[in-house]
Amino acid sequence: MISFRYCVTHITNLHNSICIFRKINNKTIYISSYSSLKNSLVNINNHFKTQLIHSPDIVNNGISKGRSNQTNHILTISRTKQNSIYQKQCKFISTHTSVCNVINKQSSYFGTNPLFVKSDFTTRNCSNVRQISSFFERATDSLYTNYVNLIYVISGSTPVEFTQDSLVWLHTYTGLPWWATIVLATSLLRLTISLPLSVYQQNINAKLENLKHEMVGITTNLRRKSKEDMFRYEWSEEYTRRMYNRSVRKAWKDLIVRDNCHPMKNIFLLYIEVPILILLTFSLRNLCYMFPEPNIYAYEIYNELTTGGFGWILNLAEIDHFFILPILIGLTNLVNIEIAVMMRLREPTRLQKGFFIFFRLVALAIIPLAPYIPSSLSLYWMTSSVFSLCQKLLLISPKFRRLTRIPETESELSHPYSYLYEKIKSRINFEAQLMRKLK
Length: 439
Fold this sequence. Notes:
- By secondary structure, the protein is mainly α.
- Helices cover 66% and strands 4% of the residues.
- It has a domain at 146-310.
- The protein has helices at 5-12, 34-54, 99-105, 114-117, 123-155, 158-174, 178-233, 237-259, 268-289, 296-306, 324-342, 350-369, 375-395, 398-403, 416-438, and strands at residues 21-23, 29-31, 72-77, 85-90.
- A two-stranded antiparallel sheet has the order 1-2.
- A hairpin with a 5-residue loop joins strand 1 and strand 2 (29-31).
- Helix 6 packs across helix 9 (268-289).
- The two termini are 60 Å apart.
- One of its GO terms (cellular component) is mitochondrial inner membrane.
- The chain crosses the membrane at residues 267-284, 322-343, 355-373, 379-396.
- Its main location: membrane.
């Protein structure tokens, strides 16, 4: 059986000047740019001279057996006439179209993948594929190594070890089982840190909302004053606009300084909650895996975790085999997001809609991730999500807002729970109607 891979290898390793193949008719192929193909075609002629004439078989690259004994003209180069090209007629079984056309149309040695069937697939392409594959392998190995090193550094850091020792101390001091210790530690951190910061964040937001209404009258006065100054001092419109914008910015900064409500203070809660989440997550992980030092002390704590569960999760060092906690975590996070969306009185912007969609995807992504972590971590995440839900419902209460001295705003609802109930009811009815239409 004749193989054209040798031929393709020689042709594709030529000089950068690529020869142009032009099909004149269904039986003849002429080649331009003679000098660049000269040496390779001589080698091809020597290798296939006998096989092309005497072989009764088919071409390996998918050329079907001959439908007729037609003649194809193959270009060869005479060694004695190096600057001339002539046609040598060779008889072999082929199709009614040219060899190049058949190779393009039929499946290649590598299968029917279009990447390999195309006529421009060469050994250079093979080399590129290997280089790309090797690059991705190196990049993946590098990312994995960096990830492992990062996990190791965080797990052995001083804050994580302090949090880990604090959990052990709380468990020893209270005498509670480990599941109750995790719930108690999470609730204490939420009550003492997250809730006060959330109240402070709501206070800042309420002040900023009231300042925006106060700013309306200030901008009106500044606009009138700018027009008067333009006629009085003969300012241009561009200069007047710049002076007006400068005055508005200065007035806004003065109001923020007066009420001590800079918008950047809203991210304090994020800066505190994220480190707490990381510290507790890695601390519980260390306890379950006896890290960083697998000594007798760590082994005793591990044994306590294996028997310190409840209900269907007796072993907190193992995964939740019933997948109950992962599903509850995902559903609780989704409820948190949907309540935040329903309680908005204004139509969200495109950016806000994008954030809500992203948070929904993250909440759903936790469901398949949580079954692969110890049950102690799932229990902590579940407790944190439930507390966030309760905190969100508490912060919309007008009585609690007056108790914590959060200023009253126009967007505040007098009966928020009734409003939320109606929103949930309308959402359920809308989805039910949509399901009926789909059926």
